[in-house]
Specification:
The complex is a heterotrimer. Helix content of chain A is about 70%, strand content about 5%. By secondary structure, chain A is mostly helical. In chain A, strand 2 and strand 3 form a beta hairpin. In chain A, helix 1 runs antiparallel to helix 8 and helix 9 packs across helix 10. Chain B has a domain of about 250 residues. In chain B, strand 2 and strand 3 form a beta hairpin. Chain C is α/β, with parallel strands linked by helices. Helices cover about 45% and strands about 20% of the residues of chain C. In chain C, the strands form 3 sheets. Chain C has a 7-stranded mixed beta sheet. The radius of gyration of chain C is 22 Å and the shape is globular. The chains are: A mainly alpha, B mainly alpha, C alpha/beta. Chains in contact: A-B, A-C, B-C. At the B-C interface, helix 2, helix 4, helix 7, helix 12 and helix 15 of B face helix 1, strand 3, helix 3, helix 4 and helix 6 of C.
C-alpha cells in the first residue's frame, strides 16, 4: 500500500511538472502551428539560471529574477528565430526551433563545462514530509495544487481579457484576425511570455525534486510535455494539463511494475506508443477541436 | 536529347569523382613527403568517409521531406535497423562468442561472411569475393529490413498530417531504440553492448601477404556505395513516380484529382527512403566499426534534418554538398576552437572545450535564418552549368 | 542585405578554414622537429562523461607539469599533451581519434568510458598507434585489438569485488541492480554482479531506466518494497547524483554499492549531511601516496581551470590518480622503446612495469593490467569525504 501511494505521489508530481511545460507547447502550437522544440531547453536554462543566481542572491530574490529572465529569453527567441520566418514554410520554422534547441544545449555545455550541476535547496519546498508512511518532499504535494491555481488563472486570462480574446482569435484564424486589426506579433509575444514564465515555475518545481541538471535535462521532459499536449488536444489548456497528469502517472506506474517483468525500460517508449495510438484513433486529441480541411 | 546528354555528363562527373577519391587516398604510395593533410591517416579521410555515409542518409531524407513533402523524423530508427541487420549478419561465427560475451553467444549462429567463404575460400581472391558478396548482400538486406518495417508502420502513420507525422515517426524511432537496448533480447541484439568485429571499410584495402597495404579503398568504398544509391534515388526522382511525389508535395488535393493514388505514392516514397536510410545505417556501422543502439538518437535525426535544410529542401546535390560542409565543420575545421590558442603571446579569449559546438550552432542558426532556402534552394548542380559559369568567353544572358 | 550577409559568411568560412589549416600545418611542422614527443589524450570533455574525462585529463596534466621531459637515448625530449574531445559518443569518437593520429602523436592515453574507446580503437589500430586505456573497464576494449592496452581492472573483477563485499559486510541475500538502459557499462556490471551474487546463493533483481530519466523515486521505492538488502547502481555520474539526492529524501535506509564512476566528488556532495550509506569500489584512495596527494591538491588549488574541472573542490578522484599513472606508464614505454617511434613504443608497452600511486602496473598477454585489488571506500556523510572501508581482492574466479 505504502508502495502504491509512493508511486502515485511521484506520478502526480511528475505530471504536474509536465503540465507546466505542456501549456507552453500547446499555446504556441495553437497559435503558430509550431512545435517549439526549444521549449524544453528554455526550461533547462531556467534551471541553470536558478543555480547561478542562488549562489549569490537569496532565494526570494532569485526565483522572481529567474522567471523574469526566462521570459526575456523566450521573448528574444521568438523575435530572433521565429519572427523572421513568419512567411516561410512551416518546416523552416520548426528547423529554426531545432537550431535554437541545439544552440541552447551547446551553450549550456560550454558554460557548465559539461558537469552535472546541483540545484540549490529551496527552503520549505525541499523539506521532507511523511504522507501515509511514505517519505517525500513538500514540492511533490504542492505541485498539483500550484498547477491547478496557475491553470485557473490562465483560463481567466484567456477567457476574460482582451489579450485572451485576441489569442483565441489568432489561434482560430491567423489571417482573418490580422485583417480585423489584431496585432499578431504582440499576441504571439504574449504567448511566448506566458509559456516561458510557466516553464520557469516548472523548472523550480522539477529541479527541486530532481536536483541534477545536465545540458540535455530539458530534452526528455520537453518531448513528453509535447506528447501530453497532443494527447489532450493541441491548443486546449485543460487538455494539456490532463494529458500531462495521465502521462506522468502512467509513466511512474510502468517504472514501478515488478522488476521481474522487466518492462520499466519501456516507460518512455510507452509514452510514444500512447501518442501514436491517440494520433491514429483521435487525431484531434482528447479535448481538441476537429480541424476541417479547406480546399 | 538534352536529358540524355545531361545524364552522360553527370555519369562522367561521378566516375571522375570516384577515380579522384582513389587517387587521393593512395597519393602516399607514389609521393613521399606529402603534407600531413593528405597522408592516409589524416582526419581528411575520416571526414570524407563519414560525409559519404551521411550524404546517402541526407538524400534519402530529402526524398521524403523535400520531394514528397512528408515530414518524417524517423531516420535514426531506420538507420538503427540497417546497422543491426548488417552487423548481426556479418559478424564471423568465430567471433560471436567474444562479442556476445554477456549472453553466452548469439542466437543466430550464422554469418554471411562465413557462408561465402565456405564457397569461395577464405584467402586471396576467393576471400575478397566472399567478403564483397557478403557485405553487399548484408547491405541490401539491411535496406530491406528497414524498408519492410517502414511498410508496416506506414499503414498507420502515413494517414497523419505534417507535424503529427513527424512526431509519430520520431516516437517509432525511440520505441525501436528501447527495444534494441532491451537486455532480454541480448541473444540477438547484444543488449546494451555494441556489436563489433564485422567487416568495415578498412577490410576493403588490398594488402599483400605481409599485411602491408598496396591499394587503399577504404574511402572509395563508401563513396562508391553512396553514389550508386544516390544515382538510383535521382533516377527515381526523375521518373514518373518522382513527378507524382512532387505533385503530392505541391498540392495533395490537386494531385489526387489528377488520378495519383496518394497513399500508394506516399508509401512508396516512405519505403524507398527507409530502404536507403537502412543502407546508410549499415554504412554508418561500418564507419564507426560497431553497432550500438545508443548512437541512433533523435539528435542524429535532427542533425540529418539540419543537413537537408542547409543544403536546400528539394535539392539532391545541395544535400550532398551540405553534408560534406557540415561534417567537415563540426568534426574537423572547428576543432581548434576547443583548445586554448595563442596569437603571438596573447591568449584568445573564450576558447575552451565546448566552444566549437557553440560556434557551430550559431553558424547553423545564421544559415537557417538568412538562407531559409538553403545553399542550393531546389536547384541542382549540373556540370554543364558549372562549365558555363567558369568559362570567361561566353557572356551569360540575364 | 542578403548579399552582404552572404559575403560576410563566406569571409568567415574562409577565415575559419584558414585557421583550421594553420594548426594542422603547425602540427606537421613541430611534429617533425626532433625535441618534442606528443602524447595524445583521447578523452571526453563534452557529453555525458565529461565530468570523469576532465578529471582524468587533470591527472595527466599534473603529471606532465611534474615531469615535462623524457630522456630517450641520451637526448631530452619535451613531452606535449595533445587533446581531442571524443564527445562521450561513439559517432564522434572516430574523428577525434583520427585527429590525434593526424597530429602525429607517439601514443594515446584514454578514454574514460569504454564505448568511445571501442569506437576509436580501430582508428588507432589502423594507424599502428598504441593506446593505453586509463579507466575503460569493458572487456571488449582490449580483446581483438592488439593496439589497445589498459591500466585499470575489468568490469567482471569489479563486480566480483562488490558482490563479495555485499555478502561479507551486509550478509546480503537480495540485491537490486539498477542501470541505464542501453549503456554497456551499467548493464555489463549488472550482469557480472548477478553472476557472482547468484553463484553465492543470493537473489538479484535487475532493473533499467531509460536515458535522460530523472525520476528515480519509483525505482528506489520498488527496491524497498521488494525487500532488497543492497542496491547496486553502476551508473554514470549525473544519474548517480540524482539517485543519491532522491534516496536521501526518501530516507531509504538500504546501503548503496557503486562502481568506479561513483567515486566522484559530485556524488559525494549529494550524500553529505544525509544518512545514506554508499560504498564504491575504486582504483585509488586519498592517502595512498602523500606526495601525490599534496602535489595534486596544490596543483588544483593554484589553477582555477583545474579547480573547475575537478568540480569546484580539491577532493582527489580515483580517475585523476589513474590519469597520473597512465602518463608515467607512457613515459616508461617511451624510455623502454628507446625512440619516439610509435611502432617501437607499441612493441615496448607489454614489457613495461611501473609502481604507480594506484598500485603496481604490468600488462598480461591481452593487454590488460594485472591487478587483483580494488579499494572499497565509503562516503563519510558527516564530513563529506571518502573513508577507506577495506582493500578487497577478488574471489579468484
Amino acid at each position: 500500500m505504502e508502495y502504491v501511494i509512493s508511486v502515485l505521489l511521484s506520478g502526480i508530481s511528475v505530471g504536474g511538472q509536465y503540465a507546466l511545460i505542456a501549456i507552453g507547447y500547446t499555446l504556441v502550437y495553437g497559435i503558430l502551428r509550431l512545435i517549439n522544440f526549444a521549449h524544453g531547453d528554455v526550461f533547462m536554462v531556467a534551471g541553470l539560471m536558478g543555480i547561478y543566481f542562488t549562489a549569490t542572491l537569496p532565494v526570494t530574490a532569485s526565483v522572481p529574477l529567474v522567471i523574469f529572465l526566462t521570459v526575456v529569453l523566450g521573448f528574444t527567441i521568438e523575435r530572433a528565430a521565429y519572427k523572421p520566418l513568419r512567411g516561410a514554410p512551416r518546416m523552416s520554422v520548426m528547423i529554426s526551433a531545432i537550431g535554437v534547441s541545439y544552440l541552447l544545449q551547446n551553450t549550456a555545455t560550454y558554460v557548465t563545462g559539461g558537469q552535472p550541476m546541483t540545484y540549490p535547496v529551496i527552503p520549505f519546498l525541499s523539506d521532507t514530509v511523511n504522507v501515509a508512511g511514505t517519505q517525500t518532499k513538500w514540492v511533490v504535494i504542492i505541485t498539483p495544487f500550484l498547477v491547478l491555481i496557475l491553470v485557473f488563472a490562465l483560463s481567466l486570462l484567456i477567457g476574460r481579457t482582451k489579450v485572451g480574446m485576441a489569442m483565441r482569435a489568432v489561434s482560430k484564424d491567423f489571417e482573418t484576425s490580422r485583417l480585423m486589426g489584431i496585432k499578431i506579433n504582440s499576441v504571439i509575444s504574449v504567448t511566448f511570455i506566458i509559456g516561458s514564465a510557466l516553464a520557469a515555475v516548472g523548472s523550480v518545481l522539477f529541479f527541486t525534486n530532481y536536483p541534477a541538471i545536465t545540458p540535455t535535462a530539458g530534452a526528455m521532459p520537453g518531448l513528453k510535455a509535447f506528447v501530453a499536449a497532443v494527447f489532450g488536444g493541441i491548443g486546449s489548456i485543460p487538455g494539456a494539463v490532463i494529458g500531462a497528469f495521465l502521462i506522468g502517472i502512467c509513466e511512474t506506474i510502468i517504472k514501478g511494475l515488478p522488476s521481474s517483468w522487466d518492462v520499466s525500460v519501456f516507460s518512455d517508449a510507452f509514452t510514444f506508443a500512447l501518442l501514436i495510438i491517440i494520433l491514429i484513433f483521435k487525431p484531434q486529441g482528447l479535448f481538441g477541436e476537429a480541424a476541417t480541411d479547406k480546399v | 536529347m538534352v536529358q540524355k546528354k545531361r545524364s552522360y555528363t553527370a555519369l562522367i562527373g561521378i566516375t571522375v569523382l570516384l577515380l579522384f577519391v582513389i587517387l587521393l587516398e593512395n597519393l602516399g604510395n607514389f609521393i613521399p613527403g606529402l603534407p600531413q593533410v593528405l597522408t592516409p591517416t589524416s582526419p581528411l579521410f575520416t571526414v570524407l568517409k563519414k560525409a559519404a555515409v551521411y550524404s546517402l542518409v541526407a538524400v534519402s531524407m530529402n526524398l521524403l521531406n523535400g520531394f514528397t513533402g512528408l515530414f518524417s523524423l524517423g531516420q535514426a530508427g531506420f538507420m538503427l535497423l540497417g546497422a543491426y541487420t548488417y552487423a548481426i549478419l556479418t559478424v564471423p561465427t568465430a567471433q560471436k562468442e567474444q562479442v556476445y560475451y554477456l549472453f553466452e553467444g548469439c542466437a543466430f549462429d550464422f554469418s554471411l561472411v562465413d557462408m561465402f567463404e565456405g564457397i569461395f575460400g577464405n584467402h586471396g581472391a576467393g576471400g575478397a569475393i566472399a567478403m564483397i558478396l557478403a557485405c553487399l548482400l548484408a547491405l541490401i538486406l539491411a535496406g530491406c529490413v528497414a524498408g519492410f518495417f517502414a511498410y508496416l508502420i506506414g499503414f498507420p502513420v502515413l494517414r497523419l498530417k505534417s507535424d503529427y507525422l513527424a512526431i509519430a515517426t520520431l516516437g517509432f524511432a525511440e520505441i525501436l531504440r528501447a527495444i534494441f537496448q532491451w537486455q532480454k533480447l541480448g541473444k540477438v541484439t547484444n543488449g546494451a553492448n555494441m556489436i563489433k568485429g564485422f567487416p568495415t571499410f578498412t577490410n576493403f584495402n588490398i594488402t599483400d601477404s605481409s599485411g602491408a597495404v598496396i591499394l587503399r579503398l577504404s574511402t572509395f568504398v563508401p563513396f562508391l556505395i553512396s553514389s550508386l544509391c544516390i544515382v538510383v534515388i535521382v533516377l527515381l526522382i526523375n521518373s514518373s513516380y518522382g513527378r507524382a511525389f512532387k505533385s503530392i508535395r505541391d498540392d495533395e488535393v490537386a494531385a489526387e484529382a489528377m488520378g495519383i493514388s496518394l497513399f500508394k505514392h506516399k508509401m512508396l516514397s516512405f519505403v524507398i527512403s527507409s530502404f536507403f536510410a537502412g543502407v546508410g545505417g549499415a554504412l554508418f556501422a561500418m564507419y564507426v566499426a560497431n553497432a550500438q543502439a545508443k548512437a541512433f538518437t533523435s539528435v542524429m535525426t535532427y542533425e540529418i534534418l539540419l543537413i537537408v535544410v542547409i543544403g536546400g529542401i528539394g535539392s539532391v546535390s545541395g544535400s550532398v554538398l551540405a553534408t560534406f560542409l557540415y561534417v567537415a565543420c563540426s568534426e574537423w575545421w572547428l576543432r581548434f576552437l576547443d583548445s586554448e590558442q595563442y596569437i603571438g603571446n596573447i591568449k584568445v579569449p573564450l576558447l575552451r572545450n565546448g566552444f566549437r559546438m557553440v560556434v557551430f550552432s550559431v553558424v547553423i542558426m545564421v544559415i537557417v535564418l538568412f538562407f531559409s532556402q538553403g545553399i542550393m534552394g531546389n536547384r541542382e548542380i549540373s556540370l554543364g552549368a558549372l562549365i558555363r559559369k567558369f568559362s570567361p568567353k561566353k557572356e551569360r544572358k540575364q | 542585405m542578403k548579399k552582404i550577409i552572404a559575403l560576410l559568411m563566406a569571409g568567415a568560412m574562409t577565415v575559419l578554414t584558414a585557421c583550421a589549416a594553420a594548426p594542422a600545418g603547425g602540427a606537421a611542422a613541430s611534429g617533425s622537429s626532433s625535441d618534442t614527443i606528443r602524447i595524445g589524450v583521447f578523452e571526453p570533455s563534452t557529453g555525458d562523461s565529461a565530468s570523469g574525462g576532465k578529471k582524468e585529463i587533470l591527472g595527466m596534466q599534473y603529471a606532465n607539469s611534474e615531469t615535462p621531459t623524457v630522456e630517450v637515448g641520451g637526448k631530452t625530449y619535451n613531452v606535449e599533451l595533445v587533446m581531442a574531445d571524443n564527445g562521450s559518443s561513439a559517432d564522434k569518437a572516430p574523428s577525434a581519434a583520427s585527429e590525434l593520429v593526424g597530429k602525429d602523436v607517439a601514443l594515446v592515453l584514454g578514454s574514460y568510458g569504454s564505448g568511445v574507446s571501442m569506437a576509436g580503437g580501430p582508428k588507432f589500430e589502423e594507424a599502428g598507434l598504441a593506446a593505453i586505456g586509463v579507466t575503460c573497464t569493458n572487456p571488449n576494449v582490449t580483446a581483438g585489438n592488439d593496439y589497445y592496452f589498459r591500466i585499470c581492472f575489468l568490469d567482471n573483477f569489479q563486480a566480483d569485488v562488490l558482490a563479495n563485499f555485499a555478502i561479507d559486510k551486509f550478509s546480503a541475500k537480495k540485491a537490486y541492480c539498477l542501470g541505464e538502459n542501453g549503456n554497456e557499462y551499467d548493464q555489463g556490471l549488472c550482469v557480472f554482479f548477478k553472476q557472482v551474487f547468484e553463484a553465492a546463493g543470493g537473489e538479484v533483481i535487475t532493473d533499467s531506466f531509460p536515458t535522460n530519466n530523472s525520476d528515480f523515486t519509483s525505482y528506489l521505492n520498488k527496491a524497498k518494497s521488494e525487500g532488497a538488502d543492497v542496491i547496486f547502481t553502476p551508473v554514470s555520474i549525473a544519474y548517480a547524483k540524482q539517485i543519491m539526492e532522491q534516496a536521501a529524501s526518501l530516507d531509504i535506509g538500504i546501503p548503496f554499492l557503486g562502481s568506479d564512476t561513483l567515486d566522484d566528488n559530485m556524488v559525494l556532495e549529494a550524500t553529505q549531511g544525509t544518512n545514506l550509506q554508499l560504498f564504491v569500489s575504486t582504483f585509488y584512495q586519498e592517502g595512498g601516496s602523500e606526495k601525490f596527494d599534496k602535489g595534486i591538491k596544490d596543483y588544483i588549488n593554484s589553477n582555477s581551470a583545474a579547480m573547475t574541472a575537478n568540480g569546484g573542490n580539491d577532493t582527489i578522484a580515483a580517475v585523476t590518480a589513474m590519469g597520473y599513472d597512465a602518463y608515467y606508464v607512457a613515459l616508461e614505454a617511451i624510455k623502454a622503446a628507446g625512440s619516439p617511434d610509435k611502432a617501437a613504443i607499441k612493441a615496448a608497452i607489454p614489457g613495461v612495469k611501473w609502481d604507480g600511486v594506484s598500485g603496481s602496473i604490468a600488462f598480461d598477454e591481452i593487454g590488460d593490467a594485472v591487478r587483483d585489488t580494488a579499494y572499497i571506500k565509503t562516503a563519510d556523510t558527516a564530513s563529506g569525504t571518502w573513508a577507506l572501508e577495506k582493500v578487497q581482492t577478488g574471489s579468484g574466479k
